[in-house]
Amino acid sequence: MPHNPLSRRTFLALSGSSLAALVVTACTPGGGLVDPATTTSLIAGAATSSTAPSGGAVDVEIALRALPDRVEIRPGTLTDVWQYTAEVLAGDPATVEPIIGSYLGPTLRFRRGERVRLIFDNGIPDESIVHWHGLDVPEDMDGHPRFAVPEGGTYVYEFTVDNRAGTYWYHPHPHGSTGPQVYAGMAGLIIITDEEEDALSLPRGEFDIPLVLQDRTFNGDQLSYLPNGMMDRMRGFLGDEILVNEHIDAEFPVAARSYRIRILNGSNSRIYKLAWDNGSSLTILTTDGGLLESPVTRPYVTLGPAERVDLWVDFTSDEIGGTRTLVSLPFSAPQMGGMMGGTTGLPLGARFDVASFPVDRTVDSTDPLPDRLSDPGFVGVDGAVNSDAPRVVTLAMARGSWTLNGRTFQMTNVAEDENVTHGTTEIWEFHNARGGMGGGMGGGMGEGLAHPMHMHGQQFQILDRTVDDQGRAEWETVSAGYVDDGWKDTVLVMPGEKVRVLRRFTTFPGLFLYHCHNLEHEDMGMMRNFRIDTT
Ligand code: C2O
Ligand code: CU
């Protein structure tokens, strides 16, 4: 990966006390794209707000850049991508760890309680901003699209990492172009460790393997996005090749012992139904918000876009020379759009191989599966202020667009029913209402798509799920793979399904997002703000 020594010097020179100046310089040329109020508060932040960059002491300082590059994904050809690169300017150099042989953004390894500063430098020819998916940070550190900076712009993040040990990720969040930017390569993992996890003997180091699952379509050497136009937009992009850490036919040689395999569904819209080809069940250690109370097993795991699970996998009794394959099993998913045309080589719900694990050696050590993993600190449903009347968010098609309660995204607007009081706990109900086309195309485009619903800020608990009769048969092809036992920030809501979640609003006040994490749906406006008010 090419490195620019000049920009390194520039960043070193600008770190620390020069930060305010850097922000001023970077924001001025792009004034049209930056909310002036925000720019002002960011510049003035050192004096007026504890959440804005202070220029003060942090545990680690990182320069994070987004840049165009050309990489070899298919052997012998170069593909144009946009990628994140990162460099530790101060603090532990091990905070930034490239995924070997991948153009994914490097993995950021954070410790709970650590104060971090990330200086994001946007080198792609489009506006952008970075969101730390799953992390609970102040509103101006969260990567809301109102903070997007133009090409050449910079945004300085500073926050304390206060999430539980587990697997999180970062990706762009500019309104209307999150899908294409993630698709072009902009995504990376965040791995958080804490004391609770240190006390466990979980597989570490080379026995801890992260997998980022994405699907892509190539046109010759180059990535092809939305080849079917409007059809792909309404449905969500489905690629015809599966990439793991940006590799086709990914292979991870393993020893005959236990492993931790972290899995992020980093795809724009594809849902995976993950299983082992040898029929053994999956053992799950974590969900989106970190370690479960105890490991759970499933015959398969259903993973919607942006969801994560860490698996504990025991290869101890696998034959040396044999290979275990992680596959995605078939499930029933309406293909939306028989009548609209459009093709993909790999429909949603098709069976395919994800990655293979050749068992090629023995080792002396292994880590047994702990009985108990953590104290999740769940909150009781009794504490919810709206147990009698959950806040309902209806997911449906209206006026040719995917909507939340009939609305699409407005940059800073909040409807009356999107105001939440700081310090409270609430029940939210996501209802995938299907249809909603107002007749005409009943049974057509508006019907039957799954929506992975994501809330920014604190993680939530899943209380329960119900499904209507019309959706039941399809739902039953994926529902045994839901892992609702731990903290979540994204939840898959199938057609006809209602999911009730319990969410606290007790940390940072302000304007935050909730949206569908099918990135094409999000880009078309299936996203809204909610405001956490302190009074
Ligand atoms: Cu992973 Cu609002 O996003
Ligand atoms: Cu959606």
Number of separate helices: 8
Relative helix content: 10-25%
- Cα-to-Cα separation, first versus last residue: 50 Å
Q: What Rg, in angstroms, do the CA atoms define?
A: 22 Å
What would the average pLDDT be, to the nearest integer?
Answer: 88
Structural class: mainly beta
Name every ligand kind in the structure. CU-O-CU linkage, copper (II) ion
- Poorly predicted parts: 1-52, 337-341, 436-446
Strand order of the largest sheet: 14-13-10-16-21-18-19
Beta percentage is 35-45%
Largest sheet: 7 strands, mixed
Shape: globular
Let me know the number of strands: 33
Description:
The protein is mainly β and 535 residues long. The protein has a seven-stranded mixed beta sheet, with no helix packed on it. A hairpin with a 7-residue loop joins strand 1 (60-71) and strand 2. The longest helix has 13 residues, at 36-48. It is globular and about 60 Å long. The N and C termini lie far apart (50 Å). Copper (II) ion binds at residues 402, 451, 516, 518, 521, 526.
Short description:
With 535 residues, the protein is mostly beta strands.
Task: Throw out a few tags for this protein.
disordered N terminus, 535 residues, binds CU-O-CU linkage, binds copper (II) ion, 7-stranded mixed β-sheet, mainly beta, 5-stranded mixed β-sheet, 8 helices
